[in-house]
Automatic annotation (TrEMBL), chain A:
This is Amino acid/amide ABC transporter membrane protein 2 (HAAT family). The chain crosses the membrane at residues 29-48, 68-88, 117-135, 142-163, 218-238, 265-285, 305-330, 371-392. InterPro entries: ABC_transp_permease, LivM-like. One of its GO terms (cellular component) is plasma membrane. It comes from the Bacteria. It comes from Pseudoroseicyclus aestuarii. Its main location: membrane. Residues 1-10 have a biased composition (Polar residues).
UniProtKB/TrEMBL annotation, chain B:
SUPFAM superfamilies: P-loop containing nucleoside triphosphate hydrolases (SSF52540). One of its GO terms (cellular component) is plasma membrane. This is Amino acid/amide ABC transporter ATP-binding protein 1 (HAAT family). The keyword Phosphoprotein does not apply.
Length: 421, 252
């Protein structure tokens, strides 16, 4: 059959090749853009001079940027499961949590170097996913979601109660001076800090230029590098035969079975990969701030990653990262706008009106940031079911259509002019 | 030589005896039709071949090996493909992707973690999928979403997906159900072409006598879960028992 096809279809191959090249180019462009954005994030996220009133909206400080990258990794991993196979896990926070615990244990027992911590966190995340996935994937749809939720809550409650020797219960797992740290030797004086071969995670250089000030921290760039790695891997998976099979699982499991494919190992593999991403994210959280608490495994944390993925665009490459960024931005920036700041903004208005305006805006900012986020989420789900990425695509299509129409108008005019002459 | 041997299978659903003591032997490289009125047990019988149902008693063997107790994907890997009454395709994928899934399944088996290869670089798979699409004259639709195809095209695509795996036995469950006469004739033509060009046995369940008599080499008439007659089409046409079961009292 092979020989026949090769002689009979010489025409198709160039076409397929062109399509392949175009897609490969687009993917490389996307990776490059994300790399540049990640590299320049400390500058891009600080668009307002430090002294200006709008400095409130600057997000370019290390702590928040690290969160963008870490939750980006979590959402990318979640998207490999949910976006491709359609299995909605409601227990991903469990993997995040065990990742954090494993990383802190690594810091306590082995070394303050982040590499072993991150590796162990990823592996443990994967192992937990293997066990939880093996049981949960016996069911699909809502039952699968409930099973994963049950497992995550189980982990959360165990960490609070029975497993206190490992998790240190309510206090959370922390470093202490008496930890062995086999490779580093005993520490004296103050608690040691996490590092990458001597470069401390909290180390940062601040550059001040004009009114702007930018902070470049080691911790952020470690997170950004891993985000890029995670993103590249996800592109590879999306374009691989394995990715195609995962989309086939989502589309029609019946046809899948009658095509000689076993859906279970495919979904389990996706679940484990996704759990490893979550473990990595948890390990990174602990690497940036070496403590781990059970709160990280609560169901609200599992729900958050679902929101991120859907808000950005489930099943798209860039969507989850975008969604994670938007949600973390709201959580950290919008929540800091209090009434005093609002009064400052609308100070130009007459007193009575000023109070009224502040009263209207008040529920949406500060502690009410969830409300704004909820409204945005609803708007996106209703009007842009494909998430923010679909919004960008639609906007892009409108712009392109305008571009295409423009030259034709010109050529029409030229033709008319020529006719008139 | 018979490729599919069905021995004494019975299946009961609660109070309903869906199949009782069915014996069928399908010879290799023939088209065997199973006909019968609604509720005769045709689909139940087919489901017993593919691992969807397990009969209460009896045996089903394909090429000398029992299929009972195997999962649908294992049975498919043995060389049995199935076309459904309503086309079962991957509606969210493009036509070419639909074709590639069975190509990968045929090459790599039920599971392989090929997460680091790239689909477009699988040149051999692409060529195989495109050649098959061309065989059913759907190559120009390669990049369309399968969900947006017409019903006739979905049926063609599903058949192409089954054939690209080079099955030894193709099961067709009412392949022309709900089709217009022209589409039905196209499907008959397609099946005849498949028949002519490939080494393949077909078991076909069908209501439309026109289809059955234009394709089948042998016909089994099923009524109330029991085979009534099994014979060549010429003898089935005028068989009094068949008329009685199939057409009831009405004489044509």
């Amino acid at each position: 059959m092979t020989d026949a096809t090769q002689t009979a279809f010489p025409a198709q191959t160039p076409r397929a090749e062109a399509a392949r090249d175009a897609q490969g180019r687009r993917d490389r462009m996307l990776l490059l853009i994300v790399a540049l954005l990640a590299l320049a994030a400390p500058i891009l996220l600080n668009p307002f001079p430090t002294a200006s009133a709008l400095a409130q909206f600057n997000a370019g400080y290390p702590d928040l940027m690290q969160r963008f990258a870490i939750y980006g990794i979590l959402a990318i991993g979640f998207n490999i499961l949910f976006g491709l196979t359609g299995y909605l896990s409601f227990g991903h926070a469990a993997f995040l949590g065990v990742g954090s615990y494993s990383a802190v244990w690594m810091f306590k027992l082995l070394s303050m170097n982040v590499i072993p911590a991150i590796l162990l966190a990823t592996v443990i995340g994967g192992l937990f996913a293997l066990v939880i996935g093996f049981v949960s994937l016996r069911r699909s749809g809502i039952y699968f979601s409930i099973l994963t939720l049950a497992f995550a809550q189980m982990c959360y409650n165990l960490a609070y109660s029975v497993l206190t020797p490992i998790s240190n219960g309510e206090t959370g797992l922390q470093l202490s001076l008496s930890d062995p740290r086999v490779l580093d030797g005993p520490s004296s004086g103050s608690l040691p800090v996490t590092s990458l071969f001597g470069a401390e995670m909290r180390e940062a250089a601040t550059i001040t230029l004009g009114g702007w000030s930018w902070t470049f921290s080691v911790g952020y760039y470690v997170c950004a590098a891993l985000l890029l790695l995670a993103f590249w891997l996800s592109i590879r998976i999306f374009r691989s035969p394995f990715g195609l099979m995962l989309r086939a699982v989502k589309s029609n499991q019946n046809r899948m079975a009658y095509t000689g494919l076993s859906a279970r190992p495919y979904t389990l593999a996706a679940f484990v990969i996704s759990g490893m991403y979550a473990g990595l994210a948890g390990g990174l959280l602990a690497s940036m701030d070496p403590l781990a608490g059970a709160d990280r495994m609560q169901w609200t944390a599992s729900g958050e990653v679902v929101l991120m993925t859907i808000l950005g665009g489930a099943g798209t490459l860039l969507g989850p990262v975008l969604g994670a960024g938007v949600i973390k931005y709201f959580e950290n920036i919008f929540s800091k706008i209090n009434d005093a700041i609002l009064h400052q903004w609308v100070a130009v208005l007459p007193d009575g009106l000023e109070d009224a305006v502040v009263a209207v805006i008040h529920p949406f900012v500060g502690k009410g940031w969830h409300l704004t986020l909820g409204l945005i989420f609803m708007a996106v789900v209703i009007f842009l079911p494909g998430g923010l990425v679909e919004g960008a695509r639609r906007a892009g299509a409108v712009v392109r259509r305008r571009d295409r129409n423009a030259p034709s108008v010109e050529s029409d005019a030229a033709a008319r002019r020529a006719a008139a002459e | 030589m018979s490729i599919l041997e069905v021995r004494d299978i019975s299946k009961r659903f609660g109070g309903l005896q869906a199949l009782s003591d069915v014996n069928i032997s399908v010879a290799e490289n023939t088209v065997h039709a199973i006909i019968g009125p609604n509720g005769a047990g045709k689909s139940t019988l087919l489901n017993c071949f593919v691992g969807k149902l397990i009969p209460d008693t009896g045996s089903v063997s394909f090429d000398g090996q029992s299929v009972l107790g195997r999962k649908p994907h294992q049975i498919n890997q043995m060389g049995i493909s199935r076309v459904f009454q309503t086309p079962e395709i991957f509606a969210d994928l493009t036509v070419i992707e639909n074709m590639m899934v069975p190509c990968f399944a045929h090459r790599d088996g039920p599971f392989r973690l090929h997460a680091f290869e790239s689909v477009p670089k699988e040149r051999h798979i692409t060529e195989m999928a495109e050649a098959m699409l061309d065989d059913v004259s759907m190559l120009e639709k390669r990049d369309l979403h399968a969900g947006s195809l017409s019903r006739g095209d979905k049926r063609r695509l599903e058949m192409a997906m089954c054939l690209v795996q080079e099955p030894r036995l193709l099961l067709l469950d009412e392949p022309t159900a709900g089709m217009a006469r022209a589409d039905t004739n196209n499907t008959i033509q397609l099946l005849k072409d498949i028949r002519r060009t490939r080494n393949l046995t077909m078991v076909i369940i069908e209501h439309d006598m026109h289809v059955v008599f234009s394709l089948a080499d042998r016909i089994t008439v099923l009524a109330q879960g029991t085979p009534l007659v099994e014979d060549v089409p010429e003898n089935i046409k005028g068989h009094p028992k068949v008329r009685e079961a199939y057409l009831g009292e009405a004489q044509v």
